[in-house]
């Protein structure tokens, strides 16, 4: 069966996530029944075109309101946590490679013809820090006198929110310019920096800064879809590594946290030794001792 073109699928989901064309004349957020459903990818709730909620923003909102709303916040937290677990188990980082609108934007920017660079892997650890502190701990622990916290990642970092909500709302309603403060200029500067880096580094935001991709990546080894390498038929040509846009070592990192399931390795392999399997079985940890003389480590 021929694999579908990934860009068309990415575009489809980007349009699905932002299907509220009524914003063009209503100039207001969509608040219908779909807005209570979390879209798998990073897509800002406050975007006028957004039809769904963002799981990362919803998670922060639930944590920020735990002390103030009590059981209601716990119910919201259970819902978004359950959504993330389901997305993770059923899709893993397929969400990143095929569904996330901001992922598509990054890939389109990378197509701009210029010199390209490999992102230092030491920077990949930054997203762990952002997930633990800006997404989980600060919203839950740093609260005001009213007992309500803030959505710190959305407030200070998220480029999707700045692009989809901040700039678009300002374009639709110029009167909002009177409310702009220094924080907005910081967010715009950070957005421009990230988008510029995405021209030179493939999916810079995904690799370094995205907590949502990290959450899904943690399910790559235990989810229903996993990549499998057939060692005996391998030609040791290294084409799989050459076509991997995330710069992963294959087969060691086929199901690592960083794999976005773009399937370039599967499609590029001349011997077809890599396949996408549907299984509940935990993937075996790759043991380099089994492949001495067969695959470079």
UniProtKB/TrEMBL annotation:
The 4Fe-4S ferredoxin-type domain covers 225-247, 250-279
Give the record's keywords alphabetically: 4Fe-4S, Electron transport, Iron, Iron-sulfur, Membrane, Metal-binding, Transmembrane, Transmembrane helix, Transport
Indicate the segments annotated as coiled coil, or none if absent.
none
Q: Which Pfam families match?
A: Fer4_5 (PF12801)
TM stretches of this protein: 76-101, 122-144, 150-172, 184-204
* GO CC term (a single one): plasma membrane
Q: Name one GO molecular function term.
A: 4 iron, 4 sulfur cluster binding
| Classification via PANTHER family | FERREDOXIN-TYPE PROTEIN NAPH
Protein name stated in the entry:
4Fe-4S ferredoxin iron-sulfur binding domain protein
Task: Give the species.
Answer: Thermodesulfatator indicus (strain DSM 15286 / JCM 11887 / CIR29812)
């Amino acid at each position: 069966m021929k694999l579908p073109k990934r860009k068309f699928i990415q575009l489809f989901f980007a349009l699905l996530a932002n299907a509220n064309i009524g914003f063009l004349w209503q100039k207001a957020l969509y608040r219908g029944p779909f807005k209570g459903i979390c879209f798998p990818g990073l897509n800002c709730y406050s975007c006028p075109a957004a039809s769904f909620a963002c799981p990362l923003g919803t998670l922060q909102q639930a944590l920020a309101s735990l002390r103030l709303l009590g059981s209601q916040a716990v119910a919201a937290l259970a819902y978004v946590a359950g959504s993330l677990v389901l997305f993770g188990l059923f899709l893993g980082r397929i969400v990143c490679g095929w569904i996330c609108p901001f992922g598509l934007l990054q890939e389109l920017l990378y197509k701009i013809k210029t010199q390209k660079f490999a992102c230092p892997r030491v920077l990949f650890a930054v997203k762990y820090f952002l997930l633990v502190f800006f997404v989980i701990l600060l919203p839950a622990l740093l609260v005001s006198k009213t007992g309500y916290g803030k959505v710190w990642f959305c407030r200070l970092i998220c480029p999707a929110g700045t692009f989809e909500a901040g700039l678009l709302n300002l374009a639709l309603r110029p009167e909002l310019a009177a409310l702009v403060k220094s924080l907005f200029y910081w967010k715009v500067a950070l957005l421009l920096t990230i988008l510029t880096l995405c021209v030179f580094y493939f999916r810079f935001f995904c690799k370094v800064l995205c907590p949502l991709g990290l959450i899904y990546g943690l399910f790559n080894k235990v989810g229903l879809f996993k990549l499998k390498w057939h060692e005996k038929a391998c030609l040791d040509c290294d084409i799989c590594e050459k076509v991997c846009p995330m710069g992963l070592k294959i087969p060691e990192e086929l199901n690592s946290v960083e794999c976005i399931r773009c399937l370039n390795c599967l499609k590029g392999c001349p011997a077809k030794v890599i396949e996408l399997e549907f299984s509940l079985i935990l993937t075996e940890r790759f043991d380099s001792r089994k492949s001495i003389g067969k695959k470079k480590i």
